[in-house]
Amino acid sequence: MRRSVPIQTLLLRVFLPAIAIVAIGLGVLTYNRLYATILEGFDRKLITTSALTGAMIDGRDHDRLIAAARAAPEADKAAEVEHSREYLSHIRPMRRIREELGLTYLYTQILGGDQDIIYVLDSSEGDEHSLIGSEDDLPDETLAGVRRSIARGTIHLSPIEYQEQWGLLKTAAAPLRAGNGRITATAGADVNVSLIQVATQNALFTSVVIGMASLLACVLAVLLVVRSIARPLDRLRQEALRIAGGDHAPLAPFPAPRDIARLRTALADSAAAMTGRLADARDAFLAERQRGALTAIGAGLRQAGDAPALQFAGPTAQDSDALLRRAAAARLAARVAADPDLAARIEAFGPVMRLADGETAAARLPDGRTVTIGSGS
Length: 377
Known about the structure:
This protein is α+β, with helices and mostly antiparallel strands. It is built from 9 helices and 10 strands. It has helices at about 5-55, 60-70, 75-80, 85-100, 140-150, 195-245, 260-300, 320-340, 340-350; strands spanning about 105-110, 115-120, 135, 155, 160-165, 165-175, 185-190, 310-315, 360-365, 370-375. Strands 1, 2, 3, 4, 5, 6 and 7 form a 7-stranded antiparallel β-sheet that branches. A 3-stranded antiparallel β-sheet has the order 8-9-10. A hairpin with a 5-residue loop joins strand 1 and strand 2. Helix 8 packs across helix 9. Residues about 305-320 and about 350-355 have low confidence and may be disordered.
């Protein structure tokens, strides 16, 4: 036999998995949107920084630094150039920009040399610093973008690419004009993917905390809603089972939402109507039984040989006590009819038996006289 499951449990089985699925789906969408937003923010930062750096550097100073870079491949000569006024006047603000914006690299470069590019200004410090005149190879797509930037004067923004020496980078390259106005170099701004990942993880952690708090709030709200719905429904179910089991007591009022309150009122009206119909049916059944019993008693008395015919006056009996009183009066009337002396004594002293108000039993004597039993008040 299957056990019935409470309504509250059924509602929770439906709502809680639905909330979990929606929360997971929204979490995935939020993460993707968050990652795209962070990546877009880094793109704008790289484009803006590279463009401003290219516009900030004096073309004539950069031309002299380019000439020094081509003539200073040795480390000692490069270190001497990096202590010059032209180099320091540009590298110091570049370092402040890189540190304030949280970029990984900020530099200028030209095409040429034994490799793809030659570094001119590099704001990095320590082991990651590239001396003026240092050469490097670029990924094919980034190299093509740098060439387009020099040829067309546009800003190149690369996707996340792996560079053997520097790791996973996202790069922007903006045109840098020489003293004669021609584009001869580019200003590059790079950000390491680890910075993007850290920013994404921090934002994701904040989003997860907010999401968990929101999820808990939703669960609590669902529990309250389910409780407000399930308890009245369960109470209504119990009342319906009670009425179906034969207990027709009126429904006690209980708090419920508007729709459930309407069901409660309808159930109470149905129970009241059912109680009325059952009472009418019971009264009709008892009245029929009493009429049958009365008819049987009268028939039995008439078959008693010398018993006279009986007639009952007054209203029909409504309960068993009245029926028994009528039967006793009829038996006494039969005795009176059989004993004239008893009849004379009864007539002399008056009625000797009281029935219910308005009820009488009469016997007709052989000489034509009628003796009434129980007519006194």
